[in-house]
Specification:
Length: 238
C-alpha cells in the first residue's frame, strides 16, 4: 500500500517538474527569444508594418488595403454604395467584402474574393455587354466603364483598352494593398487635376513609390496605395 502511494507521489512529482520545465521553455523562454529576434531583425514587420504620415501619426498598415471613399449621405443605410473620393489614388475593387451578419453587435468587415469563375456571364467565351446582371463579366464591364469615366479629364481621355486587369478585378482577399504601376499611372491625370498639381509631379510620385519584383524575380512590380496617398497628402498639404 505504502509502495503504491510512493510510486504515485513520484509520478505526480515527475509530471509537475516536467510541466514547470516545459512551461518555462515553451511559455517564457521561446516566446521571449522569438520576440527578441523579430524586434531586432524585423522590427517594422513585427510591429504591423505601420505607415506613418509626416507628423509621425500611424495611418494604417502597408499590408492591408484601405478604401478612399466620400462620406455616405446616410451612414445608417446599408444599401447605399459609397462613392470613391477622386482626389486620391484608388485601390483594387473589393467586391468580395461584406458586412458581418452573425455578430451584429460589432461592425466587422469580412474579406474574400467573389468566388465566381473567370467565364461567369461570358457569351461565346468573351465578356460582352450582354452579360447577365450580377455575373463577374457584368461586374468587370461596369468597373471598366467607371474607371474610364472617373479617370478621364478635360485634357486626357482614358481608353478602355488601357485599363489594366487589377483596376476591375479584386484580389483573393479583397484587401490587396497594392496596384500595378500601370493602374497608378492611369490615375495620374485625374489625381493631378483634382489636387491642382502638374501631371509630371504625380507621375514622379508614382515612380518613386513603385517597387520591383521581390528578389528580382518573384511577383510583379507594384505600388502601395496607402504609402502613395500618404506621400500625396504631404505633397498637397491637405
Amino acid at each position: 500500500m505504502n509502495s503504491s502511494v510512493g510510486n504515485a507521489a513520484r509520478l505526480i512529482g515527475a509530471g509537475l517538474r516536467a510541466l514547470l520545465v516545459l512551461t518555462a521553455i515553451c511559455g517564457v523562454l521561446y516566446p521571449l527569444a522569438v520576440t527578441g529576434i523579430a524586434q531586432a531583425a524585423f522590427h517594422d514587420n513585427a510591429n504591423g508594418s505601420e505607415v506613418r504620415d509626416g507628423s509621425g501619426r500611424v495611418v494604417g498598415s502597408s499590408l492591408i488595403g484601405q478604401s478612399y471613399d466620400l462620406p455616405k449621405r446616410n451612414p445608417d443605410d446599408p444599401q447605399e454604395v459609397a462613392k470613391p473620393d477622386l482626389r486620391w489614388f484608388q485601390p483594387r475593387p473589393s467586391n468580395g467584402l461584406g458586412a458581418n451578419s452573425v455578430n451584429t453587435r460589432y461592425s466587422l468587415i469580412l474579406s474574400g474574393a467573389t468566388n465566381r469563375s473567370a467565364d461567369d456571364g461570358a457569351v461565346g467565351g468573351r465578356c460582352t455587354g450582354d452579360a447577365a446582371e450580377g455575373t463577374l463579366c457584368a461586374q468587370v464591364i461596369a468597373a471598366k466603364r467607371a474607371v474610364v469615366a472617373d479617370n478621364s479629364t478635360a485634357t486626357h481621355r482614358v481608353e478602355a483598352r488601357d485599363v489594366p486587369a487589377d483596376a476591375v478585378t479584386s484580389s483573393g482577399s479583397g484587401l490587396d494593398p497594392a496596384i500595378s504601376p500601370e493602374y497608378a499611372r492611369l490615375q495620374a491625370h485625374r489625381v493631378a487635376e483634382r489636387n491642382g498639381l502638374r501631371v509630371e509631379q504625380v507621375e514622379e510620385l508614382v515612380a518613386a513609390h513603385t517597387r520591383g519584383r521581390t528578389l528580382g524575380f518573384m511577383g510583379e512590380p507594384r505600388v502601395n496605395v496607402l504609402e502613395l496617398n500618404t506621400a500625396l497628402r504631404a505633397l498637397t498639404g491637405s
